[in-house]
Amino acid sequence: MPELVFFSGTMDCGKSTLALQIEHNRSSRGLQGMIYSRNDRAGHGKLSSRLGLVTEAVEAADDMDFYAHVVGHLSSGGRVDYVIADEAQFLAPEQIDQLARVVDDLELDVFAFGISTDFRSKLFPGSQRLVELADRVEVLQVEALCWCGARATHNARTVGNRMVVEGAQVVVGDVVGDADGPPAEVGYEVLCRRHHRRRQTSASARAVALSPDVLPVDHVR
Question: Quick check: keyword Transmembrane helix in the entry (predicted)?
Answer without folding.
Answer: no
